[in-house]
Amino acid sequence: MAARRRVAVVGGGIAGLAAAVRLRDRAPEGTEIIVYEQSGSLGGKLRTGELAGGPVEFGAESFLMRDPAGGESAAVALVRRLGLAGRIVHPTVGQAALAVDGGLRPVPGGTLVGVPGDLEKVATVARPTPEADRDGGGPLLGPDDDVSVGALVRARFGDEVVDRLVDPMLGGVYAGRADDLSLVTTMPALARAARVEHTLLGAVRAAQAAAPRAPGEPVFGTLDGGLSALVDAAVTASGATIRRHATVRELTPTAAGWRLTVGPTRDPEHVDVDAVVLAVPARPAARLLTEIAPVAAKEIGGLDYASVALVTLALPEPTLPQLSGFLVPSTEGLLIKASTFFTTKWGHLRRRDGLALVRASVGRYGEEEQLQRPDEDLAATVHREISAVLDGPLPAAVDGHVQRWGGALPQYTPGHLDRVAAVRAALRAAHPTLRLAGAGYDGVGIGVCVRSGETAAEEIITALEGSGR
Ligand SMILES: Cc1cc2nc3c(=O)[nH]c(=O)nc-3n(C[C@H](O)[C@H](O)[C@H](O)COP(=O)(O)OP(=O)(O)OC[C@H]3O[C@@H](n4cnc5c(N)ncnc54)[C@H](O)[C@@H]3O)c2cc1C
């Protein structure tokens, strides 16, 4: 009879939990799964909180319904697997705006994260330079090339399209700059099309045609009750032993697998396991790999992260436009980079007491010093800036919450996916029972992180089968 196996999942974010569920579903019966989470709560950047007596997301808010490569997203598939499909809800108000020139203009339709597929449609916000998007006789991007989104779009459509459209939309997701972020990692569908098409307009249209949307098809979904419901259900379904307040500080290869050093230095615990899914952000992963795979550790540890704070205010009956929220280009000189009218956007969150929840995201890559301000200062600034954008003072908040996410959003520079592939290949060859998963590698979205965890779990199962142990 095969020995009972033990797999450690280090990191209890959504990638680690998705890995744990996949291990439970596909690993041989009796496999012991242990999730180690350094903090007191699971879910990582998924955290549903409460404000003024109602639920609100203090971290990630929603998932993409579709996978960028087509088909249902891995987040939706996991939700189904966990029996939560009946709780998926979609935004009731989908139209967002851009705060430009001191006012709000609707985000133009027909773009891919702000990159236009119809230049006329974006004229309300930016003046593109169609003459620059000439057919140069070959594809925009070579087969192995990557480029920053900003560099490509600036060269083809001009600065305004980047500064007033693409940058705020990408910044809303990554808190980073279009000029730094990798096209291949952040906009994979456009990158694929750019390897074939000769113009950017052609590439955007090809990418859109490759994944046509049915009229009214929802782009985003979340769960009634909050995304922490996904976390809780994953924990239950995984049947894993959950260790909270359990920082894994060392990983040491042994003849049979791995020895984990867990907990405080003065009172460490040593645990032997057959395999490890390392589902922590890149920097802690790099620290754990320094001794055993120094080159991989250096490569992974080079990934930079942006810090953000989410400020949520509960406002008594404010007059808000029928918008899901707005994005702010960095050229507007405001601290806030995006605001979500939570109770307008999500009908299931509307409240009988008339309170509106308005959330703003603060913090751009490279401007971390702005986040040093005290909570009250951030909340007051958010209140003042949203009032200015809406051109009328908001009522005083009856409650508020500031959630800081230090070093939370990976800044994938061009070549990121190639670097990750090289690191993974080297690790696989040297340590087949160790796998990397999570936002530090494959992409930032919840669905991508779920898939990353599931893939790591499957590779571990295959490696353990191959080892004959
Ligand atoms: C403010 C914000 C809003 C977002 N909004 C959205 C959104 O609406 N939609 C979307 O798709 N994506 C969103 N994202 C991105 C998405 O939430 C994250 O990319 C994703 O949740 C990351 O999951 P993960 O499991 O890879 O990492 P994490 O969530 O970071 O989880 C990693 C876990 O590992 C633990 N850990 C670290 N080191 C150790 C150690 N040594 N030992 C044990 N445990 C350790 C950490 O405490 C953490 O819990 C948002 C991100 C942020 C920051």
Task: Describe the protein.
It contains 14 helices and 22 strands. It starts with 5 loop residues before the first strand and ends with a helix. The strands form six sheets. The protein has a seven-stranded mixed beta sheet. A five-stranded parallel beta sheet has the order 12-2-1-16-22. With 469 residues, it is an alpha+beta fold. The chain folds into three domains: 6-45 and 228-302 and 412-467, FAD/NAD(P)-binding domain, CATH 3.50.50; 48-93 and 304-410, Alpha-Beta Complex (Polyamine Oxidase, Chain A, domain 2); 109-133 and 141-210, protoporphyrinogen ix oxidase, domain 3. Flavin-adenine dinucleotide is lined by residues 10-16, 36-39, 44-46, 59-63, 247-248, 279-281, 284, 308, 310, 405, 408-409, 438-439, 444-446, 449. Belongs to the protoporphyrinogen/coproporphyrinogen oxidase family. Coproporphyrinogen III oxidase subfamily.
